[in-house]
Hints:
Elements lengths: L15 E10 L3 H12 L4 E4 L30 H12 L15 H15 L2 E3 L3 E8 L2 E9 L2 E12 L5 H5 L5 E2 L13 E4 L3 H8 L4 H9 L11 E7 L2 E6 L10 H25 L1 H4 L3 E5 L9 E2 L37
Amino acid sequence: MNKPSETIALEQSVPVRGEYDVIIVGGGPSGCTAAAASAREGKHTLLIESTAALGGMGTMGLIPGWCPFSDQEKIIYRGLAEVVFRKSRAALPHDSERVDWVGINAEALKRIYDDLVTSAGAKVLFQTTLCGVFEENGRVSAVLVANKSGLSAYKARVFVDCTGDADLAVEAGARYESGDGDGLVQPSTHCFVLGNTDMYAYLFKLRWKLGGPAKQLRDDPELDLITDNFICTDAVSPDAVGFNAGHIYELDSGDPEAVSAALIRGRKMAEQFCKGLRKYAPEAFGSAYVAQTGGLMGVRESRAPPLLPRRNRPQQLLCGHPPHLQGPGKGRGAIGPLRAL
């Protein structure tokens, strides 16, 4: 991020527009479940989200599918995670039986999260961005936000940071780490959806065999933005396939100028994927088009709290998918530390 050439002093009073027991910043899966759990316990709860929908990468970011929810025998994620998953799966009439690698209907998932949070009694504030915090006696007492009403403040007894980038914690002065020893982070991906696909050919001929076409895309000089053969897909409707494909390297998600450039690059990359798949996988994608690109960049690694002492780190995790850590730099691979769930 470019360093500012000058500063402007800002001194103004802002209205306090509400006071709550609990305020959660960030309306992704963790923020939604935190808000629902808080409200179900009778706490006056506010969920602040910077976009126009809840769900984060599963909705606005267009991640195409759920990672496995089972241990190959039974569902192992329970509680609110299972509630959301089962309702999301029911919104896919073409894929409503499996528990592993199930596609996501993003529009349905938005409504599912809306209902989860509001039916519990929490209030949601969309298109509202965290700008700063107010502190009293070493504790955060209020958050400063910006939206169509201008700058305003919201007070609470407890604040929960579910931003994904530790925005609230960093504004409050928390220490953080980012990347490996050289500051390199895992690559990001801009997800997208291809419409007008031949679903039979995709499901029964190509779904688990896209590695071949992916290498052809990578090696095609006309598709210069596709620099590796990373490609994950899932059926998101009866005639559309969602893609978590391609990498954008060395992206600092805390740099808005870099993220803006990456989103522009990602949309161009999606068009190149479509062009290449029409060429190398015509049986499924011969008449495909880019139906949608994500409104969020898929960031795999961002700011994180410093590591806990070894004696305090969890030793085992119950999960249906192994840790998936991708190289921080092009051509590099690394197994990073366990940070947080």
